[in-house]
Write a structure and sequence with these properties.
The complex is a heterodimer of chains A (about 300) and B (about 240). Chain A is mostly helical and about 300 residues long. Chain A contains 15 helices and two strands. Chain A has one domain. In chain A, strands 1-2 form a two-stranded antiparallel sheet. Chain A is globular and about 50 Å long. Chain B has two domains: about 160 residues, Rossmann fold; about 70 residues, no CATH class. Chain B is about 35% helix and about 25% strand. Chain B has nine helices and ten strands. In chain B, the strands form two sheets. In chain B, strands 6-7-8-3-9-10 form a six-stranded mixed sheet, with helices on both faces. Chain B has a four-stranded antiparallel sheet with strand order 2-1-4-5, with helices on one face. The radius of gyration of chain B is 18 Å and the shape is globular. Classes of the chains: A mainly alpha (about 300), B alpha/beta (about 240). At the A-B interface, α9 and α10 of A face α2 and α3 of B.
Chain lengths: ~300, ~240
């Protein structure tokens, strides 16, 4: 119950942002919401089933380009485009998940990396539909363009995605995820159908990334190959690891923290991804549970001493 | 009636014939011991029965059903549970959650409301009461072995394969463990096939003993018959004139 109260309070606080944030920080908040969806869903795949995929940004790209192209070239309403984009992301998640069934560790990572790069190269070169590196101009998701409306749409999507992730983690499927991550062979010997756990994880998280990408594209009004680049992928990875991989709160904290931080250090150029990568390495080595783990240990120690 | 039937089973690892022409049966309600020197192929036999590795040739039937086309999780659901010689707990999960995985995986998942009770029952049975919320990574070796048994039993099996669950136990713990194995059969009606190096224990509890050496089943019979068998003594101690 306390968790739900905290979640509702957090949602309420977020919902007041457009009332006092200026246009610039509202933009930052919207980008932060996009990254919460990305990091949390990647965490469900990498942190809970142990499948460290590098194709997560690619799924966001699939969602963004599908609904973007359908809206810009074929005049479909963005909502319909979004549904189709999510469906295609889920379908490709099924394909990639099935391809990776027998792979673990570095082999799975390399395969997904390859998938991601192939997709990026196609998007860059398939000029007619995607307009390559020029970027594809797309209409806003809802009516006239407005940052406030976009903010609420993304906030609703974040609430939906986090609620789903929370439901999954508390379900039998979530328990099976963790069992498979810990030891596939032992899980199978206890009656857990490993394939039917690993593949759905790809489908679900792929669909979530597709949703995030589609909404993000319609907010930016311009979709470029950056959305499915490894840059973005590693930023999502850094957010998850620094926040706390394998925890529910970690990716949320990491996404907001790093997005805000990157706005402050933006003037130093594109080095911030490099710095985040290095910080993520240090965190993974010395504090595997990230900021959230450090905080809870620190709080636990303080409370323990007080009691 | 035979519950498990193994017929001319073969498994080769490169140049090594790990299991060769192994045939035996385990009857419903029996406690059957499987012994043999190190490297005899005992654990390989368990891995073949549970589908953890593929069979080269031969056949395993369980309850009249050929296991050939079944994968590991289906074999578990068919009613064969196992423990691992080197325990493989889900390290980042608590003891309760470890057992919960078995309740989810078993043939007919235990309904939500009954789960806490079943988990507590299983953990109490193996002597892990009070450790429900301990991470299994933080257990000592003996407790992880107990957890292995609790998980295996929680899958609701008809046959349980125990792989060296007694190693490293004190004599007090040993007698508790033997009581547990007896209870698995008597109270839960589960047939037991177990690998053990502690001879006193396996001889006192098993109704029948199978002896494996270099992948071959060299002897089968009641404990007293087996210990007196010349081939078994040779397998363990070498041939009498090999010393010359």
């Amino acid at each position: 119950m306390r968790g739900w109260t905290a979640a509702l309070v957090a949602l309420g606080v977020f919902a007041t942002f457009p009332l006092f944030l200026g246009q610039y920080w509202l933009h930052t908040a919207i980008v932060g919401l996009f990254y919460i969806m990305m990091a949390s869903s990647w965490n469900l795949l990498a942190g809970f089933t142990g499948q460290v995929s590098f194709a997560h940004a690619a799924f966001a790209g699939i969602g963004a380009y599908t609904s973007g192209i359908l809206a810009a070239k074929f005049g479909l309403p963005p909502l319909l485009g979004l549904v189709i984009g999510v469906a295609i992301a889920a379908l490709l998640g099924l394909a990639l998940g099935a391809l990776c069934i027998r792979m673990g560790g570095i082999y799975l990572s390399l395969t997904t990396l390859g998938f991601s790069e192939i997709l990026r190269i196609i998007v860059v070169n398939e000029y007619e539909f995607t307009r390559g590196t020029m970027g594809l101009t797309v209409p806003p998701f809802w009516g006239q363009y407005s940052k406030t409306v976009s903010f609420y749409i993304l906030l609703a999507a974040v609430a939906l995605v986090l609620w789903l992730i929370h439901r999954i983690l508390g379900s039998d499927l979530g328990t099976s995820f963790r069992a498979v991550q810990n030891d596939e062979g032992a899980a199978a010997s206890m009656g857990i159908p490993v394939i039917r756990v690993r593949v759905p994880a790809f489908v679900i998280t792929g669909a979530m990334a597709g949703l995030a990408g589609s909404l993000y594209g319609h907010y930016l009004l311009l979709i470029t190959p950056h959305i499915l680049s490894l840059d973005l992928m590693f930023l999502v990875l850094a957010m998850t690891v620094i926040g706390g991989i394998g925890t529910f709160i970690g990716p949320i904290v990491g996404a907001l923290f790093l997005e805000a931080l990157s706005e402050y250090i933006r003037r130093y150029g594109e080095f911030h991804v490099l710095i985040f990568g290095l910080v993520a390495l240090v965190v993974a080595r010395f504090a595997p549970e990230g900021i959230v783990g450090l905080l809870s240990r620190w709080l636990g120690a303080r409370l323990g001493r007080a009691a | 009636m035979s519950l498990l039937r193994v017929e001319s089973l073969n498994k080769r690892f490169g140049g090594l014939l790990a299991v060769s022409q192994a045939s035996f049966e385990v009857n419903e309600g029996e406690i059957v011991g499987l012994i043999g020197p190190n490297g005899a192929g005992k654990t390989t036999l368990f891995n073949l029965i549970t589908g953890a590795i593929t069979v080269d040739s031969g056949r395993v039937t369980f309850n009249g059903r050929d296991l050939k086309c079944l994968s590991t999780y289906q074999i578990c659901r068919a009613g064969i549970a196992r423990t691992f010689q080197v325990p493989r707990p889900f390290a980042k999960m608590t003891c309760s959650e470890n057992v919960l995985v078995a309740l989810i995986g078993r043939n007919i998942s235990v309904p939500q409301p009954q789960r806490p009770g079943t988990i507590r029952e299983m953990l109490e049975l193996v002597g892990l009461a009070g450790k429900e919320r301990v991470l299994s990574a933080d257990l000592n070796l003996i407790d992880t072995k107990r957890l292995e048994v609790a998980r295996a039993l929680a899958t609701g099996p008809r046959l349980i394969l125990l792989d060296e669950v007694l190693g490293g136990l004190s004599s007090m713990e040993m007698s508790q463990a033997l009581d547990l194995i007896r209870a698995i059969r008597d109270r839960f009606g589960v047939t037991v096939l177990w690998i053990e190096h502690v001879m006193g224990a396996i001889m006192s509890l098993s109704e029948r003993v199978l002896v494996l050496n270099q992948g071959r089943l060299i002897c089968e019979g009641a404990p007293a018959e087996v210990t007196g068998d010349k081939r078994v003594i040779e397998a363990y101690l070498g041939e009498p004139d090999a010393q010359d």
